[in-house]
Amino acid sequence: MAQLLEGARNLGWVLLNSFLRFIFVFINNCVAIPSYCLYCILLQPLRVMDSRTFWLIEGIMFKWMLAMVSQWGWVAGYTVMEWGDDVRPLSEEEAMVIVNHQATGDVCTLMMCLQDKGTVVRKMMWLMDHVFKYTNFGLVSLIHGDFFIRQGKAYRDKQLIYLKDHLDRYYHSRDRKWIVLFPEGGFLRKRRETSQAFAKKNSLPHLTHVTLPRLGATQVILKTLGPQQENGCLGTEASTVHRSQSGSKPKGLQWVVDVTIAYSKARPMDIQTWIFGYRPPTVTHVHYRVYPIKEVPVETKPLTDWLYQRFVEKEDLLAHFYETGAFPPPKGQKEAVSRAMTLDPVQLCVIQFLAFASGYLWYSVLQYFYCRLF
């Protein structure tokens, strides 16, 4: 009887905590998203006169929006441990980020772990499924200039054309630095069976923790944003420096950042968990590996082989992690070293205060005009 009462008490606490978190997140969205959109509308004259300053201000607000999402998980005890290469020195250089995709929580995890990477968050562009366009955050992503890609064979060719046009129009004009994509084209649980059947038919590696990536968007990004091609690869250091010094064109992509996300006990986290916080505190592990862009081929067959090899490496990384609880050490080292990623609570409090103050300001303005008109 005592155990039943204790269990009921724990369940009641979980439900109350989830309800309170939902109310907080709901108010957060009702305050922050309209404020972001209204400020962007009011600043349109600045965009015409000085677009660089406009996108600087918009980027700061965008980073604050993502910091709020990060806070929802961080307050619930969902933290991040980082492994592998240190990507912070690359924060001011252009990079393509490829990530394995298991659940909607992958995006939240990236929002959190990139918060302390300099200007990356405010200068990044996301490639995401078109369904996200219709979520509460979709309008923010549209204003920021993210690209929503529609999956399926019927749309594939047109979507790649749209992607190239989008990159040409918005990437450099808005001073973007990092572009993030999920080459698998969908969640692991949805694509694994199809991917394994394709691998078996074409004598490709059998993958369990990731799926075989798709080439289209990756190739378009490399060809559109990469430096001048030489011998089938994306430029050399000499050609890149020359182009940069000339001032005629941006340097182009300099790096590929390969990100592997691993969840405790192989249980991916979704956005619902991130919002309601009903899972006990847990640590998500993120592994980085950096490749110079000159090592990346751009022709279809070599690039396919290169991309497949990256996901075979991800498979090995995840298999080792789920077996041992840690990622394997880099070559030449005896053990891997992890780094705890933490958010600044003072900064989060300031952002929340500014969001609610801004919401109150807009409420007062709208109330004033409403009373004057009616």
Automatic annotation (TrEMBL):
A Gene Ontology molecular function term of the record: acyltransferase activity
One Gene Ontology term, aspect cellular component: endoplasmic reticulum
Entries under Pfam families matching the protein: Acyltransf_C, Acyltransferase
Annotated TM spans: 20-42, 54-74, 131-149, 348-370
Gene: LPGAT1
Keywords annotated in UniProt: Acyltransferase, Lipid biosynthesis, Lipid metabolism, Membrane, Phospholipid biosynthesis, Phospholipid metabolism, Transferase, Transmembrane, Transmembrane helix
Residue ranges occupied by any Phospholipid/glycerol acyltransferase domain in the UniProt entry: 95-218
Protein name per its UniProtKB record: Lysophosphatidylglycerol acyltransferase 1
Species for this entry: Oncorhynchus kisutch (Coho salmon)
UniProt-listed GO biological process terms: phosphatidylinositol acyl-chain remodeling; phospholipid biosynthetic process
The UniProt record lists the keyword Lipid metabolism: yes
CDD domains in alphabetical order: LPLAT_LCLAT1-like (cd07990)
Highest taxon in the source lineage: Eukaryota
InterPro entries: Acyltransf_C, Plipid/glycerol_acylTrfase
Family under the similarity heading: Belongs to the 1-acyl-sn-glycerol-3-phosphate acyltransferase family.
